[in-house]
TrEMBL record:
This is 3-methyl-2-oxobutanoate hydroxymethyltransferase. Catalyzes the reversible reaction in which hydroxymethyl group from 5,10-methylenetetrahydrofolate is transferred onto alpha-ketoisovalerate to form ketopantoate. The active site is at residue 184. NCBIfam families: panB (TIGR00222), PRK00311.1 (NF001452). InterPro entries: Pantoate_hydroxy_MeTrfase, Pyrv/PenolPyrv_kinase-like_dom, Pyrv_kinase-like_dom_sf. The lineage of its organism: Bacteria, Pseudomonadati, Myxococcota, Myxococcia, Myxococcales. 3-methyl-2-oxobutanoate binds at residues 46-47, 85, 115. Signal peptide: none annotated. GO terms for cellular component: cytoplasm. Mg(2+) binds at residues 46, 85, 117.
Length: 302
């Protein structure tokens, strides 16, 4: 296994001009696949409110849920750095509450750092969490927890004033000790200016190619939802189609009685007496005396 990615690795990647690959994950199975696929960073995003829970925003997601999913992802990740999102109202009330909740994500969720949304107004909060030895990733631009303030999910920083404010926010977060910054829903020219103005890496989603890295929601890049196709998402697979096809084949075989066949069935120990109407199991090939291993359950090899 290659060395574990840390916040220092990410800084070095920016310095050497190598792009950072980040993707969301919400459970151990996806975390393992994406980690083995080469992710540098796995983000346990509060986007799980939408893609896992079926909510229409990230606002209902709770600390307990973030801790639960973070711990699952951390168990699946070997190499990638795991970041846990601080959910709505877990850090906005006071820096003290923010530190306590960031601490829960680290101690119970086993993440390597936390992410929070917002600009200079959260600089003190970032400072407090970093002082507690917990690295913080910032998040500027289209910040979904501020959906009501933004009036919807709209691109941010398009005019000169807004662009200037976002650059100031980025500089304030860096000065407060943030180790990286997500830029979401931002014009690519502004993302380039911010990226060039910071020593810490920027990771873009809908922010163009000049960021130091990119992040996408794993369900989006894998094509799990055919009805969701925003401009910034590229589908790198069609899992919706693949899953539908596999499920249809499975259902058809169950209905036809062709699954399970012999290959996927167990045999009784030879010679044992069963209740009527079948008196004795004849000597069956492959039926051993010893305990027969199932070979694993629910995708976990044993
Ligand atoms: O919650 C999330 O998944 C995110 C990313 C999309 C950046 O914040």
């Amino acid at each position: 296994m290659k060395d574990k990615v840390t916040i220092h690795t990410l800084k070095r990647l920016k310095q050497s001009g190598q792009k950072i690959c980040m993707v969301t994950a919400y459970d151990a199975t996806f975390a393992r696949i994406l980690d083995e696929g080469g992710a540098d960073v796995l983000l346990v995003g509060d986007s799980l409110g939408m893609v896992v829970q079926g909510q229409d925003s990230t606002l209902p997601v709770t600390m307990d849920q973030m801790v639960y999913h973070s711990a699952a992802v951390a168990r699946g990740a070997k190499r990638a750095h795991v970041v846990g999102d601080l959910p709505f109202m877990s850090y906005q009330v006071s820096p003290q509450e923010a530190v306590r909740n960031a601490g829960r994500l680290v101690s119970e969720g086993n993440v390597g750092s936390v992410k929070l949304e917002g600009g200079a107004e959260f600089a003190d909060t970032v400072r407090a969490i970093v002082r507690a030895s917990i690295p913080v990733m910032g998040h500027l631009g289209l910040t979904p927890q501020s959906v009501h303030k933004m009036g919807g999910y709209v691109v941010q920083g398009r005019d000169e004033d807004a662009a200037r404010r976002m650059l100031d926010d980025a500089l304030a977060l860096e000065a407060a000790g943030a180790y990286a910054l997500v830029l979401e829903g931002v014009p690519l020219e502004l993302a380039r200016t911010i990226t060039q103005s910071l020593k810490i890496p920027t990771i873009g989603i809908g922010a163009g190619k000049h960021c130091d890295g990119q992040v996408l929601v794993c369900y989006d890049l894998l094509g799990m939802n055919p009805d969701f196709k925003p401009k910034f998402v590229k589908r790198f697979a069609n899992l919706h189609g693949n899953i539908t096809e596999a499920a249809n084949t499975y259902f058809a075989e169950v209905r036809a009685g062709t699954f399970p066949d012999e290959e996927h069935s167990f045999k009784a120990t030879k010679g044992i007496r069963l209740v009527t109407p079948t008196p004795v199991v004849p000597e069956a090939e492959g039926a051993g005396e010893a305990a027969e291993k199932v070979g694993g359950i629910y995708g976990a090899p044993v």
